[in-house]
Amino acid sequence: MTPISGRAVRRLVSTCILIFLSAAVLLPWVGPGVISPRSVLHRDNSDAYIFWQLRVTRTLLALFAGGALSLGGTLFQALLRDALATPYTLGVSTGASLGAVITICLGVATIGGIPAVWVGALAGSLAVLVLVMTAAAPQRRITAFGLLLTGVAINSMCSSVILLLHSMAGVSRSFSISRWLIGSIDATSYRSLCIFLITVCIASLLVIVQAKDWNLLSVDEHWAATRGVRVQPLMLIGYILGSVLTAATIALTGPIAFVELIVPHMLRARFSSDHRVLMPCSFLLGGTLVAVCDAIGRVIVAPNEIPAGVTLALIGGPYMVWLVRERVS
Prior knowledge:
By secondary structure, this protein is mainly alpha-helical. It contains 14 helices and 2 strands.
């Protein structure tokens, strides 16, 4: 692990906060149509509605969704001591996707006034959480190997069921399933956004304040235990918090991939693998990356849009290949 001073940690995190806030202020102005600040301030015309109800909510959702997924990826990588671990590895993302696909196939629009897809995604991720924890800890002892093996198995099963349901669905529902599985950022109500932001902020803070413990656990479970870390409770809390971050995000955006790999790897390669830097900066830069990709998708083929998941894959794939080649050379 690259040693880093407390002063350097504060400087890097402060820089990432500035980038994050700049994106929050500037990106709502990016779109297929030009909006003047004067019309936005009057709040009595269509430009003001588009800005405050569509672009601002969409930008905030992108920032915190990307942050949650990136932090979740960083957390699972520390938990499993595997640099390629993601929420998909443990089946959380696929379980949420399966729950959403089932609600789409059933044609249910809302459940208790809440969009059925959101409820399905949350229920699916919760079911996978219970299954993985039950199977991976038969004797009340959680291990990284048990989590990884069980997660991969459940991930494969959920993916197979998704493919089966997709093939059996009608044309319109099949299109809806495909569109949702791509992953995209859409405007949402401020009420839903506030609930999401509160959930993500609480879970993220609980993860980040334990950064020193994640540093120890990412080396070895026994090594961490000899230095006073309560390994079993930490792994349980980590898996639950990572699942909450992933499930809450996928419920609103669909499964947006790659951000949980791109940002942590970039930070490790350029700065440090110290989780005091890695976790907060992953959240801040991951959110910025998704928001920028969403903004690019809004304007590059206007008036049509490219989903953020597609833009992110097109940008992130070549970058990951370049990063690997650079590190090898």
